[in-house]
Specification:
The complex is a heterodimer of chains A (104) and B (465). Chain A has 104 residues and is an alpha+beta fold. Chain A has four helices and six strands, in the order βαββααββαβ. Chain A has one domain. Chain B is built from 13 helices and 22 strands. Classes of the chains: A alpha+beta (104), B alpha+beta (465). Chains A and B meet through β3, β4 and β5 of A and α10, β16 and β20 of B. Chain A: This is DUF4387 domain-containing protein.
Chain lengths: 104, 465
């Protein structure tokens, strides 16, 4: 299958704070096939996520949720919500980096 | 007084959760529909940390008084007419004592205007620094990931500290006959759990139901709809959307466990952990979903999560627009030149060195949101440059912004032979933001009794004069 971005495959890719000290990313896929394709890709690799968001792989938690055709990724916020260096109060725009990943 | 006797024949409870945040615009029609469906109580959340540390730091609500009063009137009048209790958690956005007072004052005003009589319970959750320092000294405070161990200086830096109550103080207030319960900081689930557990219902279905409906319509196909009614029994719970065009499907209901949650299956509450990994979601109709199989694991040690906000400094900002394509083609160079020149001038003009203040540019339209993570792209059409200065006091922050002012207005690129002028948005350019707060606590306090940190006061409210 030709390579596509996650954004092109998923129904929804979103990011949000999970409290002031964590960020969580949710990916919702339209079919079991799409779910399996994404689950087998870089999206579920903590090393890739850590590089994308400049954190360490040990801090990245990945939850494949086949019944929901969803994948959840959570890690501590690199900067605390609302601190001087914080650029995104709700973490609501941080999904774009994940959504741009190329999926084989 | 509202009757608290459980219905022995059905042993279930029906709770209206009309919206994700009180003051967001509750519709009378959907509350009325919930009451027609046999609601036993109305619950709503009045706060969140989601909008940042300012509200806890300042003790001032995010919601306007008018919006809050409108929504509170809608549910209070409906609740009193139906004879069912109303529970509002995390009053005043952050749940400080001032937030509870603020909402209580509005409730009394509504009682005057609507001729209402009711028993009000105010449950306070603000903790004094000595209380937290005592807990720290006696080893009852633990850090939550990613925080490190707590130190006393962090505690004393806080403007306000609140503990997140679970269901226990709310259950107690309802058992004492409260018709309106206004709480300080509580977990998002505490209102629904306080109502249902007080009626003796099973903990697994109750906590899962509470988490599912904590954002109102967010667990339905119409996330900005008019809320939901959740019916909880000992085997599970059922979600009914109150907007007729909305549906609560197994997918929308299950998906809500992901929302603003680091772990989609497990949720820690003061007395234990909700585990939804074995939950089964079934469509009752095309609009109504039933959930069974959630369990609640009692914890060996009850804990209350803390939140605290400290002043990080005082901020002054300026906003300037850049539209000149010659400058936009070299934004990184311009920003680097600005930063170097600003540091030099702040040192020579004000005698301040790096470490004594913070200053930065955010180039909106270029890389403000992602910063160093921005993968890049073609030059932007225009950029809004937000300059931010933070210092130990407001006057110093503004002095730094005034040093930045001529650079924001005129700084040329290297090699430019003329002085450009950029587009300031306001006069004066400097906007004083006041204190800028930071969340500094990510810790819990071990308790013997889940209610011990919280104070409840009862009051008979009746129309005045």
């Amino acid at each position: 299958m030709a390579s596509q971005t996650l954004d092109e495959i998923a129904d929804l890719v979103r990011a949000k704070n999970a409290g002031p000290f964590w960020i969580t990313l949710d990916v919702f896929l339209p079919t079991d096939e799409a779910y399996e394709r994404v689950r087998a890709s870089d999206v579920t690799d903590p090393r890739v996520i850590a590089e994308l968001y400049r954190t360490t792989p040990e801090k990245v938690r990945v939850f494949p949720m086949p019944a929901l055709k969803a994948i959840k990724i959570s890690f501590p916020r690199p900067v605390t919500q609302g601190s001087f260096a914080d650029r995104d109060m709700h973490s609501g725009q941080q999904h774009v980096l994940l959504a741009a990943l190329s999926i084989p | 007084m509202t009757s608290q006797t459980p219905d022995a024949t059905t042993r279930s409870v029906r709770i209206i959760f009309p919206i994700g945040m009180l003051g967001g615009g509750i519709t009378e029609e959907t509350v009325a529909r919930g009451i027609e469906l046999g609601a036993d109580a109305i619950a709503v959340d009045g706060g969140s940390t989601d909008s940042g540390p300012h509200y806890l730091g300042s003790g001032i609500a995010k919601t306007s008084r008018g919006s809050l009063k409108r929504d509170l009137r809608t549910i209070l009048v409906a609740g009193r007419r139906a004879g069912i209790p109303v529970v509002v958690t995390t009053c005043g956005t952050s749940g400080t004592d001032s937030g509870v007072e603020w909402v209580a004052d509005i409730a009394r005003e509504i009682a005057d205007e609507e001729g209402l009589t009711f028993t009000l319970a105010r449950i306070y959750s603000e903790l004094t620094q000595p209380t937290v320092l005592d807990a720290l000294a006696s080893g009852r405070i633990d850090a939550l990931e990613p925080a490190g161990p707590l130190d006393a200086a962090t505690v004393t830096s806080c403007e306000h500290i609140v503990g997140l109550m679970g269901h226990v103080p709310i259950t107690e207030a309802l058992a004492a006959g409260a018709d309106l319960v206004l709480t300080g900081r509580a977990s998002d689930t505490a209102s629904v759990a306080g109502i249902a557990l007080g009626r003796g219902l099973a903990a697994g279905p109750t906590w899962h139901a509470a988490k599912t409906v904590e954002c109102g319509s967010q667990c339905t196909t119409d996330p900005i709809g008019g809320g939901v009614l959740v019916e909880i029994d000992d085997e599970g719970f059922t979600v009914h959307p109150l907007t007729e065009t909305a549906a609560a499907t197994p997918m929308t209901v299950a998906a809500h466990m992901l929302y603003e949650n680091a772990d989609p299956y497990r949720l820690r509450e003061p007395g234990g952990t909700l585990d939804t990994s074995a939950a089964v979601y079934t469509a009752v109709t095309d609009r109504v979903t039933r959930v069974e199989g959630s369990i609640f694991e009692e914890a060996e040690q009850a804990t209350i999560k803390l939140e605290g906000a400290a002043i990080g400094g005082y901020e002054t900002v300026s906003l300037v627009g850049i539209r000149d394509p010659h400058v936009l083609a070299h934004m990184d160079d311009w920003i680097a030149r600005f930063s170097g020149e600003l540091a030099r001038r702040v040192s020579s003009h004000l005698g301040l060195e790096k470490g004594q203040y913070d200053a930065e540019l955010r180039a909106y339209g270029y890389n403000a949101v992602l910063g160093d993570l921005e993968p890049g792209g073609p030059p932007p059409r225009e950029v809004g440059v937000l300059f931010r200065a933070r210092a130990a006091d407001q006057a110093t922050a503004t002095a730094i912004a005034k040093v930045a002012n001529p650079l924001l207005l005129h700084l040329p690129l290297e090699g430019m032979t003329h002085l450009p002028s950029f587009a300031f948005a306001t006069s004066p350019a400097e906007m004083e933001r006041g204190a800028s707060y930071e969340f500094v606590l990510q810790h819990t306090i071990a308790v013997d009794d889940e209610a011990e940190l919280f104070r409840t006061e009862y009051e008979e409210v009746a129309p005045r004069g």
